[in-house]
Amino acid sequence: DFNRYITIADIGTGAGFPGIPLKIMFPHLQLILIEVNNKKIRFMQEVIKELNLDGVHFISDDWRTFLRTTELTIELFLARASLQPVELLRIYKSQSIYKNARLIYWASQHWKPTPGVALYVKEEKSYSVGGKKRRYIFFENKSMER
């Protein structure tokens, strides 16, 4: 339920998926698009301008730099194929200000978590796109009291 979130971040957003469609569906969201490729950022800036969307911000840092240097209030992170889950789970290190955030990872039907990654899996949901079976993997820092 995206109505319960204020700020979401799309990690390695590429062409803006899923961040931009979610912003269209849920205009109240503040959207942070994290992308290191400046050509992709320029493209997305044009898309945002053409769609007349507000509350969209770009960060051109790589994931590790983002985690070390930003202090934004973000409740939910989204990632498709930008990084491997073991890299994404740096979010839950004890010194991360994002250690209480949720993370949704788009995975293939055949994806299997390593034992270390499995510790953070809260739930999984299956879906199909174009005849391909996929899954949403919901991660949370289970060591933190919510």
What is the strand and helix layout of this fold?
Layout: E1 7-11, H1 19-25, E2 30-34, H2 38-51, E3 56-59, H3 63-69, E4 76-79, H4 85-88, E5 102-108, H5 115-118, E6 121-129, E7 132-139
Parallel strand pairs: 1-2, 1-4, 2-3, 4-5
Antiparallel strand pairs: 5-7, 6-7
Mean pLDDT: 93
Total number of strands: 7
Number of DSSP helices?
Answer: 5
End-to-end Cα distance: 18 Å
Spell out the helices and strands N to C. EHEHEHEHEHEE
- Roughly how many Å is the radius of gyration? 15 Å
Strand order, biggest sheet? Answer: 3-2-1-4-5-7-6
Beta-strand content bin: 25-35%
Helical amount: 10-25%
The biggest sheet, with number of strands, parallel, antiparallel or mixed sense and barrel status, is: 7 strands, mixed
Unreliable stretches (pLDDT < 50, length at least 5) are none
Class from helix and strand fractions: alpha/beta
Query: What's the shape?
Result: globular
Structure, described:
The protein has helices at residues 19-25, 38-51, 63-69, 85-88, 115-118, and strands at residues 7-11, 30-34, 56-59, 76-79, 102-108, 121-129, 132-139. By secondary structure, it is an alpha/beta fold. Strands 3-2-1-4-5-7-6 form a seven-stranded mixed β-sheet, with helices on one face.
Short characterization:
With 146 residues, the chain is of the alpha/beta class.
Q: Which key terms come to mind for this protein?
A:
single chain; 146 residues; alpha/beta; seven-stranded mixed β-sheet; 5 helices; 7 strands; 25% helix; globular
